[in-house]
Write a structure and sequence with these properties.
mainly alpha, MarR/SlyA-like, Arc Repressor Mutant, subunit A, WH-like_DNA-bd_sf, DNA-binding, 3-stranded antiparallel β-sheet, about 60% helix
Length: about 180
Amino acid sequence: MAGARRLPVDPIAEAKRQWIAHGWDDAAVGMTAVTSVIRAQQLLIGRVERTLKPFALSFARYEMLRLLAFTREGRMPMASAIARLQVHPTSVTNTVERLVRDGLVVREPHPTDGRAAILALTDDGRELVERATSALNTEVFAEPGLSGDDIEQLVSIIARLRRASGDFSDPRPLPEPL
């Protein structure tokens, strides 16, 4: 947690020292990178969750609402949502079930595929996601804890890692570099 007592030493730097002391020099830098990214994710998701708590939203629920709100009509096939959110279909199904239960999303029959469903944002869902987005923009995204140049470098480096891991391929024509 970001507001927790500061440690007198960086535990990740200490872990790197221990890795090297145990003869794992060739893996020490990679271990440091992986654990640093994981810890940074924990810190950021903590800020996001604290910001979304007054809206009774998890980040997964927020992402689904925001995804739907970005569409022209506030609706999309469930399969498209699963692909865009890059999470397991069961996770999306569980998230959607909660949003439906809370009246923020409705399931509609797919017009051409009887096995598929269309997800549609309700007026309450649209209103909630707009308020939650405003809070996230103010409390997290506008000031993530790094300078603008550092943010651009970080996003670029992580994008290279994601691309090399097969997370996405570059569209043609290429967008402006991150």
